[in-house]
């Protein structure tokens, strides 16, 4: 399959490398000050990384904008994943590149693409099947060619690894205290791979990263995070599925 999955991972990586700065937390009442607002930028980033890596589950929504985006690049996604390799999510592609839904339970993976995505991504000899397959769940495994990268997008361990891949950013600076998505945060800014990055870290309760933004080279990505929420339990019925690659 094409580079679509790697584009998704790259876009996520840009915002998660911001968490080589930080992330997004769920607002909770009566939580105590966690002390991160009094720390240095480097220590805030470290606390946020530790909190992210210790989370049992993650819900991330991401939007990406830019004149250079093509049909393989994600314009938006909404993914929920946990440590047991359970995941549900949707991905919409830029420049009219279609959309798909993804579900994962362990090694079992289902994707439900629309007709536009199928026409762009099916091998040339199968392109005539796009209309028939649209709206159907294609079932395979996390090891299948073409599903393996999507399975990684849908893995909390892989997403956490994106942070471990980049544990520092240049010119880390501590920003102001503010509120993001209803959560009190302190912001940390820096540069990574030519992009300006801002991470907002919760100052109450667990110092989760609440939001990460990255901008530069004509692109802008915003990711919002929530942690330790249950992944929706969704499994396609057998009559709704066909084999991946079959």
TrEMBL record:
<protein>
    <recommendedName>
        <fullName>Lipoprotein</fullName>
    </recommendedName>
</protein>
<feature type="signal peptide">
    <location>
        <begin position="1"/>
        <end position="27"/>
    </location>
</feature>
<feature type="region of interest" description="Disordered">
    <location>
        <begin position="212"/>
        <end position="246"/>
    </location>
</feature>
<dbReference type="InterPro" id="IPR029046">
    <property type="entry name" value="LolA/LolB/LppX"/>
</dbReference>
<keyword id="KW-0732">Signal</keyword>
